[in-house]
UniProtKB/TrEMBL annotation:
Pfam families: DUF1749 (PF08538). It comes from Saccharomyces eubayanus (Yeast). The gene is U6500H02060. InterPro entries: AB_hydrolase_fold (IPR029058), SidJ (IPR013744). Gene3D superfamilies: alpha/beta hydrolase. This is Uncharacterized protein. SUPFAM superfamilies: alpha/beta-Hydrolases (SSF53474).
Length: 295
């Protein structure tokens, strides 16, 4: 357990974000956690703040309505709405009139970054995605529990019936929440996470070229991809090098950072000190490369 120095910002009436010391830098990296994350839960966030200090950056860890166990009743649209409020706050007088805001997502936070850049990309300087595995594919393998793919298919079909009938916000039974850390989940968010082509389905290895063109191909904001080499939530049959190559091919050359790649030795959340150093070796040159050419 640890204590952290910094500033707690209330950027809307019901949302807060924590700025790690050192605070008040004119450039800021907003750290967006993944599923079940919230304030102070991403392992490398504190060390990242110290690493970026000499380069004029503060690190702000955002708490969203979807943080911790709120993801099951939330959506990427809601996350982006709240992130836009935070970006506007940081650029305003109360937030310190920051000159540049960079969004960094870990795990499902990477989906938030993609979703945001496709809607408000001109409001931030850059985006970073780390641990950007597919939720759909991660549940297509045995992780911590006995897995029944036929049951999952049946559950998803039932949820789809509710969505199609206009009951997308209905809470599903405990059969569903058992797959999602005992978290209450709506029919919409279940389908978003579990269906091919769902709103959350940005990173699956089987997405067709047309889907990548509609996501990576539409980005106009500089993007760094830091994919964990030993991510335990990526099925062993996924070729990470080939997947990164597909994403790069779909992205405009001026958008895709040359520093993108696999974080050697990193598992999903990069708790390993050596892997954290390698991650930071990718982040620092990317963050000091601005401005970039218009796309």
């Amino acid at each position: 357990m640890s204590s952290f120095e910094g500033i707690l910002h209330r950027y809307t009436a019901r949302n807060v974000a924590f700025e790690f010391a050192p605070t008040g830098r004119k450039k800021v990296l907003v750290m967006i956690g993944g599923m079940t994350d919230g304030l102070l839960t991403v392992p490398y966030a504190t060390e990242l703040a110290h690493t970026l200090e000499p380069h004029g950056y503060s690190v702000v860890n955002v708490q969203l309505t979807s943080s911790f166990l709120g993801f099951g009743t939330a959506s990427l649209d809601k996350d982006v709405e709240e992130l836009k409020s935070l970006v506007d706050f940081l650029k305003g007088a109360q937030g310190g009139r920051r000159e540049a805001v960079v969004l960094m997502g870990h795990s499902t936070g990477s989906q938030d970054v993609m979703h945001y850049l496709l809607r408000h990309g001109n409001s931030v300087a850059a985006g970073i995605i780390q641990g950007s595995c597919s939720d759909r594919e991660s549940f297509d393998q045995t992780i911590d529990q006995a897995f029944d793919p036929q049951l999952l298919a049946t559950l998803t079909a039932r949820a789809r019936e509710l969505v199609d009938a206009g009951h997308q916000n209905d809470l599903l039974s405990s059969e569903y929440s058992a797959y999602l850390f005992d978290t209450p989940v709506t029919a919409y968010r279940w389908c978003s996470l579990m269906e091919a082509g769902g709103d959350d389905d940005y990173f699956s290895s089987d997405l067709p070229a047309e889907a990548l063109a509609a996501s990576f191909g539409r980005l106009k904001t500089p993007l760094l991809v830091a994919y964990s080499e030993n991510d335990q939530y990526v099925p062993p049959w996924v070729d990470k090098h080939a997947l990164l190559a597909r994403w790069r091919a779909a992205t405009l050359p001026a958008v895709w950072s040359e520093y993108s790649g696999l974080v050697k030795g990193a598992t999903h959340a990069v708790p390993e000190p050596a892997a954290q150093r390698r991650l930071f070796e990718m982040l620092v040159p990317f963050l000091t490369d601005f401005p970039r050419a218009d796309c």
